[in-house]
Design goal:
It is a single chain. With 173 residues, the chain is of the alpha+beta class. Helix content is 24%, strand content 31%. The chain is globular, with a radius of gyration of 16 Å. The two termini are 20 Å apart.
Length: 173
């Protein structure tokens, strides 16, 4: 896993890199991904069928070697979101603390192996994801496991490594 970067000093605003992907509601995520592949020249990097726990999902990217995905098409409209990438794990944890201190309810915190993320809604109900890319390669399936962002950076990195090893040891997942 790549280095987490410098610690964000207490009181300093966390550094984020901006919007890095958007999750759009789609009636048929697989067909929409084909459109973006054929018309926009993007690559389909991962898909899940409609009977998956999160419903049908398709991930597409223009340069998947640089960013895991640019767009996510979701059949479950409650999963539509805007994702902001932070520069380091320290920044992710600083944002997490800042959002909680503002009194905003965190909906969930997830270990996606390729990223650690937390989700909350803005005042109008738009879902926002703040994530840190772990530097690990894409996993062969859509994966999300709850994670406690109150853990130390070292513990969080161990959790990412544990799941990464699982996917390496069990490539059929």
């Amino acid at each position: 896993m790549k280095q987490t970067g410098e610690m964000t000093r207490t009181g300093e605003k966390p550094h984020f890199l901006g919007v890095r992907h958007v999750g759009l509601a789609a009636k048929d995520p697989a067909s929409l991904a084909v459109f973006y592949r054929d018309v926009m020249g993007m690559r389909i990097v991962r898909q899940a069928p409609s009977d998956s726990p999160l419903g049908a999902i398709a991930f597409v990217a223009r340069h998947p070697e640089e960013e895991d995905h640019d767009l996510v098409f979701v059949s479950n409209t409650t999963s539509a979101h805007t994702a902001f990438r932070v520069a380091s794990l320290a920044d992710l944890l600083a944002f997490y603390r800042r959002i909680k201190e503002q009194g905003v309810t965190i909906k969930h915190c997830l270990n996606h192996v390729v990223e650690l993320a937390f989700y909350f809604e803005d005042p109008e109900g738009h879902l926002i994801e703040i994530y840190w890319a772990t530097g690990l390669k894409r996993v062969p399936e859509i994966y999300a496991e709850a994670i406690d962002l109150e853990l130390s950076e070292e513990q969080l990195c161990r959790e990412v490594d544990r799941l990464a090893a699982h996917f390496t040891d069990h490539p059929s997942h």
